[in-house]
Amino acid sequence: xxxxxxxxxxxxxxxxxxxxxxxxxxxxxxxxxxxxxxxxxxxxxxxxxxxxxxxxxxxxxxxxxxxxxxxxxxxxxxxxxxxxxxxxxxxxxxxxxxxxxxxxxxxxxxxxxxxxxxxxxxxx
Amino acid sequence: xxxxxxxxxxxxxxxxxxxxxxxxxxxxxxxxxxxxxxxxxxxxxxxxxxxxxxxxxxxxxxxxxxxxxxxxxxxxxxxxxxxxxxxxxxxxxxxxxxxxxxxxxxxxxxxxxxxxxxxxxxxx
Amino acid sequence: xxxxxxxxxxxxxxxxxxxxxxxxxxxxxxxxxxxxxxxxxxxxxxxxxxxxxxxxxxxxxxxxxxxxxxxxxxxxxxxxxxxxxxxxxxxxxxxxxxxxxxxxxxxxxxxxxxxxxxxxxxxxxxxxxxxxxxxxxxxxxxxxxxxxxxxxxxxxxxxxxxxxxxxxxxxxxxxxxxxxxxxxxxxxxxxxxxxxxxxxxxxxxxxxxxxxxxxxxxxxxxxxxxxxxxxxxxxxxxxxxxxxxxxxxxxxxxxxxxxxxxxxxxxxxxxxxxxxxxxxxxxxxxxxxxxxxxxxxxxxxxxxxxxxxxxxxxxxxxxxxxxxxxxxxxxxxxxxxxxxxxxxxxxxxxxxxxxxxxxxxxxxxxxxxxxxxxxxxxxxxxxxxxx
Amino acid sequence: xxxxxxxxxxxxxxxxxxxxxxxxxxxxxxxxxxxxxxxxxxxxxxxxxxxxxxxxxxxxxxxxxxxxxxxxxxxxxxxxxxxxxxxxxxxxxxxxxxxxxxxxxxxxxxxxxxxxxxxxxxxxxxxxxxxxxxxxxxxxxxxxxxxxxxxxxxxxxxxxxxxxxxxxxxxxxxxxxxxxxxxxxxxxxxxxxxxxxxxxxxxxxxxxxxxxxxxxxxxxxxxxxxxxxxxxxxxxxxxxxxxxxxxxxxxxxxxxxxxxxxxxxxxxxxxxxxxxxxxxxxxxxxxxxxxxxxxxxxxxxxxxxxxxxxxxxxxxxxxxxxxxxxxxxxxxxxxxxxxxxxxxxxxxxxxxxxxxxxxxxxxxxxxxxxxxxxxxxxxxxxxxxxx
Lengths: 124, 124, 387, 387
Ligand SMILES: Cc1ncc(COP(=O)(O)O)c(C=O)c1O
Ligand SMILES: Cc1ncc(COP(=O)(O)O)c(C=O)c1O
Known about the structure:
Helices cover 48% and strands 20% of the residues of chain A. Chain A is α+β, with helices and mostly antiparallel strands. Chain A has one domain (4-119): Sufe protein. Chain: A. Chain A is globular and about 45 Å long. In chain A, β1 (24-29) and β2 (36-44) form a beta hairpin. Chain C folds into 2 domains: 6-14 and 258-385, Aspartate Aminotransferase, domain 1, CATH 3.90.1150; 18-256, Aspartate Aminotransferase, domain 2, CATH 3.40.640. In chain C, α9 (241-277) packs across α13 and α10 crosses α13 (360-380). Chains in contact: A-D, B-C, C-D. At the C-D interface, α1, α3, α4, α5 and α9 of C face α1, α3, α4, α5 and α9 of D. The structure holds pyridoxal-5'-phosphate (PLP) (2 copies).
């Protein structure tokens, strides 16, 4: 069902946890299957310097979150904003069709985190 | 499906053939399955002295005919008139349910032969 | 009674080949997982089922996703016919033949009672449906045509390709009950231009209780019962995994054997037909050439089929009279009646259906035994004497 | 990854016992005749099928003629429900529960669309239907009640005997889906007072793709598809002979093992439940006592079932989350929702279903692995941290 990359990210997820001094926090979830992701970013010079995630969900959800954090670390936030869920799935070498809809939402959490960061910047 | 008695009567039918000098000839058939029986009797002193049959039909039809001829040989025609198809089936040790309806008509042929005999007597 | 068995009832069912049994065995005690399960033992079985689907598809020139495994030919036929009808509210017109297997025929009868219109096409004396007749029967609301690829009793092959291209031309769905043909003759769903094709494993040396339905992509058909999401909800219920594996293996073997098997069976068949026709008052039922490689169906006049079967059985020869499935019935075969055979000749029909295991010796043995059986029974028969 | 397999998914399917495979084997290559055939090889097989029917009947306290072999539990359920409904023109009222298997539930949904009225009875927090509720739901036109004997997900046993006597009192037909119970607990159709009972062989160490439906004598039910006259036309199609033989053998063995198996599994089950409940934030789903001997269903809060299954799988433990049949679905289980479990707890449910092959070592192994899996996943989970 899941390929080895997915299993690897599920088993050894990268960048798990919270960032207490996060510059942006984004959340997303699927009502249907209950999956929930929270993404924390630390931004420096418009670049994502650090990133952490917490995910409640199935194997695909956890692996997608983990893969996303790897993909964005060090990236400019403008570029990070362009990352799609499909790209995350592709980076994982593909996900089962059923999982594409509801468990592959990490990019959404990231976008929400970036928006949160921008809002906080605007506010400060 | 068929018991050993049936198979024996099917394999070695008793009293097959015609009686050229029959005193009575009876026929019967099932429209449904196409079975046809012809029974020839020779009567002496109101007793069935000889009997022969010809049957077109399945194993049960042939065996019933054969068994019937054994049952009636030497019998008084009044008694023979009382023989039922069920008694023939019982004498064979039973027939499959489906065969009770259409292939077990030998007693009817016998009754017709006796009626034929009586009519011929009346006519003469 | 004797022990030798000459099995000539392959139209009813066939022995399962050893290779097929071997392919099934691991799926009972070792790879027993449920293919719907998420865990490794389940996923391994899912993979095996997927491979079986691919093999099955390949043997029919179809896409794997167009193959649905069922519990047999009967269920496949029912899904194709009722599942298609269900999808149309407000009736419509169905074209079929008057010699279909009960699994098509009786569904059509039911659908008639439910308000659908059905045309049962006549056949010629050889049991052939003419494509021209099909064309003439088409009405504006005809939504499906169902014509069997070969008849199970008399073995007549139908002009499926011609009917298929006609149906395709007019945009009408086309189902063929190919239960008697798959594994005996080459079958390619695109070549035949069919939308549905039914098959049953036990007719080609596979196990009983497993079949398949090919459904062309894009064709809408409803399932006939409900449950889990197996077979994409078309045929719910935990998959008969050993059956599926066995079906695909049997089909693979049968298809690869066709070239040599067909020739061999045709030669045996023609020899048996020739020998039987040398007996007085014997007629061949079905088409002299357009017939299944292994099918021999003759009528012995003046005697009745069952009594012949019984006598053959006592010589160790297994044959049948009409369809094995309807042997419980007393009615004369609707197939033989449809060919115009008179009722009493129809009652004397016997089918010898040859298969892979039969040899020239078997044919010789049958030809040695039949004449005396026929003679004995004719001697008892009133109609023979009154000629 | 490691190789040891601890299979705790017997609710999904079970390995076929060696004795059962052995009983089936002669019916592939040797006794391959079609039981409908007239000849000796066919008749021998018919006899074997008859004996299998007797054995099956005996195991259920039923008459052999009241047993119909089907392709599995799904088909049995469909025949009972749809076949009964079909026989009533003009609708009527059906009572069922809100936790039935899809093979009953979805048929009821269909029937609703076709004009029948259906009451889906609620269950209590343990998943129990109350006979009192059944009584209150009865309307003048209620013609069938269908309540499963035990639920496949949470293992809750239903008060079938009480509902049966209620139905009998009022002259309403009563069907029970006993797929999860047959072979696990004693079942007697007269004692339970059921008119229909569905079972599936692969749930009691028999083969997949074969099941049976008990139908009480005199009860009218229509078949759901058409074909030959097999199974007295209730279930047409060439019989799955090896399957029928395997079913009857597996049932015979399972029933004779019940006394010792039940005790053993209950002890293992309770030990596993006890051990799992020692982990923080774990709740038992289903009834604490009125549950299947081998069923353990718990929810691990803050984590999702599939991720637990995946982690278990990597330790060589096969379990499931909800019904295996609906594992393709993303919806939270309708069963757990019906018990009133909140959605997120429902998502964390895992079923361990024990069977004959499981040992105390298996339970110990699972109890050794689960805590660290749960901890690891909770460490990733946002809801655990935000408590
Ligand atoms: C032409 C044809 N269609 C359908 C069937 C039904 O197949 P099964 O008995 O495997 O369901 C048969 C065999 O009996 C058949 O010969
Ligand atoms: C309670 C219940 N009913 C019906 C079924 C369906 O049985 P099968 O998949 O063998 O058709 C199952 C098993 O999946 C079940 O657990």
